[in-house]
Amino acid sequence: MRLNGEISHRDEKGKNEMYSICPGFLQPLKLVVGYALTKKKTKSFLQPKLEGLARNKGILFVAIDQNKPLSDQGPFDIVLHKLTGKEWRQIIEDYRQKHPEVTVLDPPDAIQHVHNCQSMLQDVADLNLSDCYGKVGVPRQLVITKDPSSIPDAVNKAGLVLPLVAKPLVVDGSAKSHELSLAYDQYSLSKLEPPLVLQEFVNHGGVLFKVYIVGEAIKVVRRFSLPDVSKLELSKNTGVFRFPRVSCAAASADDADLDPGVAELPPGPLLERLAKELRRRLGLRLFNIDIIREHGTRDHFYVIDINYFPGNEDWSCIMLLPTFDSALVLFWYGKMPEYEHIFTDFLLSLMQSKCRKRPTVECAYWKNNNGNGS
């Protein structure tokens, strides 16, 4: 039980405030969010604007000390985490079992599922989503776990068509696990380093759509991506081209002068259905999907990546591609627009959902003061 007792108080502006009775002082009730993030993630996520807005909405972010037992800290209403490693996964899973009253974002096993580039897209493939608004699939792909010299034969047997995007099989938070390569010819495939996933490259007009899913909310933005590869370019180029991630100022494709057939956002009803199904199948509430539209079509989409609790920081991949005569091509993953309001409203909705299931005096306060999620 978090509270020893509660009293109601009206401040100078006439607003009702709920206080907990603690030894020696009165303290306004807060929605307490414990967070366990890397230093880089903490710096990018907990921006002053977010913390200020959260305070105004009665949300308090508290850092979790990884050197102390988690059960000895808090109490928390919500635990937000994005750490890797078997030890942490066991800690957070044990905590979930001992404290079912605390909402953990998100279950460690569900997060681990999308860290594997093979399993993350299987849920999309299993959906076989197709309706009047369009069709959503995944590019054909192949998992390679052993000898690089076996890759050309494996690709031939699978019938995959060049060029191929190569991704590390497991995303572990390291810079290397986010690197991409583009292989143009059969010979170069043996230069790749397993374990990895090979994915057919789909021409998509150089634009991808990042679909941010925060609880029930969906936000879509355009981002520049890899340029299309023509048959002529494919015949002229050989080798493997690697795309390291580096920090850079951000840009988006939202204001760019693009072909309307490329720039048009995927239909809202299609994205809502996709998001709803993936929330259920993945067991996640914080994730984003990278979607591309097959060039030359209006309604044929592919999901190429899924990320848990994506960063809102501005960063990009800068790539030097032979198809552009040594021009720099920018692959942007920018900040999610309005993320501060979307995220704080999401946290409040979790509290409200919990209150519907288990009414308390504290919940009555939250319903009276935050019932509209503002």
TrEMBL record:
GO cellular-component terms in the record?
cytoplasm
Tell me what reaction this enzyme catalyses. Answer: 1D-myo-inositol 3,4,5,6-tetrakisphosphate + ATP = 1D-myo-inositol 1,3,4,5,6-pentakisphosphate + ADP + H(+)
Any binding details for the cofactor?
Answer: Binds 2 magnesium ions per subunit.
Q: Where in the numbering of this chain does the Inositol 1,3,4-trisphosphate 5/6-kinase ATP-grasp domain appear?
A: 133-314
Q: Where does 1D-myo-inositol 1,3,4-trisphosphate bind?
A: 41, 82, 178, 210, 307, 311
**Family per similarity comment:** Belongs to the ITPK1 family.
Q: What is this protein called?
A: Inositol-tetrakisphosphate 1-kinase
Q: Which organism is it from?
A: Tetracentron sinense (Spur-leaf)
